[in-house]
């Protein structure tokens, strides 16, 4: 009997090559990719430690990668400020694969076709490890945030919209 070989994504191969420790996590996928909060629940992880990767285009025409907790919303003004742009806009889903090599729901800050300026929400530094996509829907990698920031040449900043307080 041969042991079933674990499927390695490009993200995992890069982490192995750079000798960065990680833990792979799989989750079941139906007809559509689940939202990030559902992924966190499926993995038994705190949603604050599971990050989604978003790609935006700046007013100058440059592309940027932002990683934020799955339950949060990217504040485009804060994102623009973090990368020194006048403004940024989310990349349309149809442009994601040709630019990055990743599909919606499987986009990782590691291993894109080209290296883009990458900014992680500063809260990542409060966690020993965070989960990001392993480059495929249904697969995540748990990695130290400092390792991810170093690997991507990234930085950390406040990127999310403030929660509006509801008054009765």
Outline the secondary-structure elements.
Blueprint: H1 10-17, E1 22-26, H2 36-43, E2 51-58, E3 63-69, H3 76-83, E4 88-90, H4 93-100, E5 118-121, E6 130-136, E7 139-143, H5 145-152, E8 155-157
Parallel strand pairs: 3-5, 5-8
Antiparallel strand pairs: 1-7, 2-3, 2-4, 6-7
Written overview of the protein:
By secondary structure, this protein is of the alpha/beta class. Helices cover 24% and strands 25% of the residues. It has 5 helices and 8 strands; from the N terminus they run αβαββαβαβββαβ. Strands 4-2-3-5-8 form a 5-stranded mixed beta sheet. Strands 1-7-6 form a 3-stranded antiparallel beta sheet. The protein starts with 9 loop residues before the first helix and ends in an 11-residue tail after the last strand. The C terminus is likely disordered.
Measured between the Cα atoms of the first and last residue, the distance is: 64 Å
The oligomeric state is: single chain
Unreliable spans: 164-168
Approximate shape: globular
Approximate helicity band:
10-25%
Percent of residues in β-strands: 25-35%
Average predicted confidence as pLDDT: 92
- Biggest sheet details: 5 strands, mixed
Reading the helices and strands in chain order gives HEHEEHEHEEEHE
Output the structural class: alpha/beta
Tally of contiguous helical segments: 5
Task: Tell how many strands the DSSP assignment holds.
Answer: 8
Round the Cα radius of gyration to an integer and report it. Answer: 16 Å
User: Strands of the biggest beta sheet: in what spatial order?
Assistant: 4-2-3-5-8
């Amino acid at each position: 009997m041969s042991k079933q070989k674990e499927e390695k994504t490009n993200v995992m191969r890069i982490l192995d090559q750079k000798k960065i420790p990680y833990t792979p996590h799989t989750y079941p996928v139906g007809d559509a990719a689940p939202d990030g909060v559902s992924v966190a629940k499926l993995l038994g992880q705190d949603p604050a430690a599971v990050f989604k990767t978003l790609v935006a285009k700046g007013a100058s025409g440059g592309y940027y990668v932002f990683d934020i907790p799955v339950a949060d919303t990217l504040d485009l003004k804060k994102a623009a400020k973090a990368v020194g742009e006048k403004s940024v806009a989310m990349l349309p889903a149809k442009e994601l694969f040709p630019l990055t090599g990743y599909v919606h729901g499987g986009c990782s800050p590691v291993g894109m076709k080209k290296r883009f300026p990458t900014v992680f929400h500063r809260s990542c530094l409060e966690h020993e490890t965070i989960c990001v996509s392993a480059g495929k829907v249904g697969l995540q990698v748990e990695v130290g945030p400092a390792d991810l920031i170093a690997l991507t040449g990234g930085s950390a900043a406040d990127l999310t919209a403030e929660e509006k307080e509801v008054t009765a």
